[in-house]
Amino acid sequence: MTKTILRALARETLPVPPIWMMRQAGRYLPEYRETRAKAGDFLSLCYNPELAAEVTLQPIRRYGFDAAILFADILLLPQALGCDLWFETGEGPRLSTITTAEGLAGLKPKEAIHETLAPIYETVGILSRELPKDVTLIGFAGAPWTVATYMIAGRGTPDQGPAHAFKAADRAAFAALIDLLTDATIDYLSAQVEAGAEVVKLFDSWAGSLKGQDFDDFALTPAKRIISELKARHAGLPVIAFPREAGERYVGFANATGADCVAIDNSVSAEWAAENVQKDSCVQGNLNPALLVTGGEALFSETRRIARAFSGGPHIFNLGHGITPDADPDNVHRMIEAVRG
Ligand code: 1CP
């Protein structure tokens, strides 16, 4: 029996959509907080294969999701390329910044990444042995543009202003950074697949701030290059792309990049996405993660509405973005019940 997630990614319409959740391993779960404390801090957890595998498995045990996503972070790749990375408690990630062509020249070549990232491949290996047989293992990386926004600003930014400024000041140097990240991402994801990842997902969380030609050059083209190279190396590998807040640019994204599934945020309606995006590929996403904080009738009715809107084609039930630390773990059971019940 082929796993349900793989069937949906192969464009099969299923009577009940398979389910997983962005950030399903995370701070809303008491068992995650306990394991993170055991590891010491977030980065030590990412680089500890036994404990990273443990937190990946926690939401599978608690909820019976159809997919597990490797526990790691999109910012480990810049660290492997030589950037300093640390997490400020209660605030988020911080990196040393790259704002000039000279700064870019100081990065390591892509061949160097595996030295730092070897423990991540080990986590994937443990998971591929320990996951229940019907659960799909998803590997992931940040898309080049999103990763670049953090490398340039040194942190998360509301409008990605520093990255846009670098792009405007020296487009050639900026394009060289995107190229380096594209090449390194291909090797990083390829190594995850060799270690046992069955599907990979490319997170372009800040794709929505790229407009016009910039969207083509820095969101679409890198995704296309990553996906075609991965599929050349690993025949039949399914890929999920998440160009978050792409709006109208969600339309045609799967055909233009070769993605098998497009993840949809919650700024567009499921009915619109069913008509304009699902015609070309599998879709996943769209439930507003805030509903897992508030719960109640709205959680039930929105979950049902999304499942209904996407019921005519290939669909994986998911959120429009990551579940937040203040979500109620019991609401996740209610969401699953509303999909499967
Ligand atoms: O304190 C903690 O324990 C850290 C919280 C946390 C977690 C649980 C961070 C810090 N990263 C993660 C894990 C993670 N991150 C996963 C694997 C776990 C899972 O999904 O179950 C994945 C796939 C990511 C991806 C990620 N990291 C993205 C893309 C998806 C998205 O949310 O848009 C991004 C942008 C990051 C960067 C990052 N890492 C962590 C934070 C708080 C952030 C956002 C920082 C910011 O923009 O300010």
Task: Label this structure with key terms.
341 residues, alpha/beta, TIM Barrel, seven-stranded parallel beta sheet, two-stranded antiparallel ribbon, binds coproporphyrinogen I
**What is the chains' assembly state?**
single chain
Low-confidence parts lasting 5 or more residues at pLDDT below 50?
Answer: none
Kindly report the average pLDDT value. Answer: 97
Mind telling me the CATH class? Answer: Alpha Beta
CATH fold naming: TIM Barrel
| Spatial arrangement of strands, main beta sheet | 1-4-5-6-7-8-9
Shape, principal axes of CA atoms: globular
C-alpha termini separation? 22 Å
- Count of helical segments? 16
Number of strands: 9
Q: How many structural domains can be distinguished in the coordinates?
A: 1
CATH arch. level architecture: Alpha-Beta Barrel
Strand content: 5-15%
The H-and-E topology, N to C, reads as: HHHHEHEEHHEHHHEHEHEHEHHEH
Helix content: 40-55%
Q: Radius of gyration in whole Å, from Cα?
A: 19 Å
List the helices and strands and how they pair.
Blueprint: H1 4-9, H2 30-39, H3 42-46, H4 49-63, E1 67-69, H5 76-80, E2 85-88, E3 92-95, H6 101-105, H7 113-130, E4 136-142, H8 144-153, H9 161-169, H10 171-195, E5 199-204, H11 212-233, E6 239-243, H12 253-257, E7 261-264, H13 270-276, E8 282-285, H14 291-294, H15 296-309, E9 315-316, H16 329-340
Parallel strand pairs: 1-4, 4-5, 5-6, 6-7, 7-8, 8-9
Antiparallel strand pairs: 2-3
Helix pairs in contact: 2-4, 4-7, 7-10, 8-9, 8-10, 9-10, 10-11, 15-16
The protein binds coproporphyrinogen I.
